[in-house]
């Protein structure tokens, strides 16, 4: 199976501790492939808030993986929603539209939001 793109979603607290895994709903499957999720352990490499406090720590997360159908090359798009349940009175919901470019050979795949 060729994996063209993968994104990881996890939840962390301000103290770098786990905040529970979010739930992920695939709102629109791509036309030329499939999207699936798997649980994974990853190392935090950056923070969306600019803090480096948690960098290097291992964290449970969920990978969102795009796999194109055989022989497909070109652009595809997937829409999914992430719901973070922990740490707040009401869940935090984020919608994502990701455009994937599938290329041949040893060229690096790319994903654009």
Overall description:
This protein is mainly beta. The chain has one domain. It contains no helices and 7 strands. A 4-stranded antiparallel beta sheet has the order 2-5-6-7, with no helix packed on it. Strands 1-4-3 form a 3-stranded antiparallel beta sheet, with no helix packed on it. β6 (92-102) and β7 (110-112) form a beta hairpin. The radius of gyration is 15 Å and the shape is globular. Residues 1-6 have low confidence and may be disordered.
Helix content: under 10%
Order of helices and strands: EEEEEEE
Alpha-carbon distance between the two ends: 23 Å
User: Could you tell me the radius of gyration in angstroms?
Assistant: 15 Å
Q: For the residues shown, what is the average pLDDT? A: 76
**Count of discrete domains:** 1
User: Which spans of ≥5 residues are poorly predicted at pLDDT below 50?
Assistant: 1-6
Count of β-strands: 7
Number of helices: 0
| Spatial ordering of strands, largest sheet | 2-5-6-7
Overall shape: it is globular
Strand content of the residues, in percent? over 45%
List keywords for this structure.
four-stranded antiparallel beta sheet
Task: Give a summary of the structure in a few sentences.
By secondary structure, the chain is an all-beta fold. It has strands spanning 5-9, 23-28, 33-43, 58-68, 74-84, 92-102, 110-112. Residues 1-6 have low confidence and may be disordered.
């Amino acid at each position: 199976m060729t994996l063209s793109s993968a994104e990881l979603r996890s939840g962390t607290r301000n103290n770098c501790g786990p905040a529970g895994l979010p739930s992920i709903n695939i709102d629109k499957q791509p036309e030329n492939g499939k999207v699936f999720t798997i649980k994974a352990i990853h190392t935090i490499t950056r923070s969306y808030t600019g803090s480096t406090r948690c960098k290097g720590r291992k964290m449970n997360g969920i990978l969102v993986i795009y796999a194109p159908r055989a022989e497909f090359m070109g652009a595809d798009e997937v829409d999914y929603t992430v719901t973070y349940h922990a740490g707040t009175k009401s869940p935090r919901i984020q919608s994502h539209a990701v455009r994937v470019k599938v290329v041949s050979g040893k060229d690096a795949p790319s994903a654009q939001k």
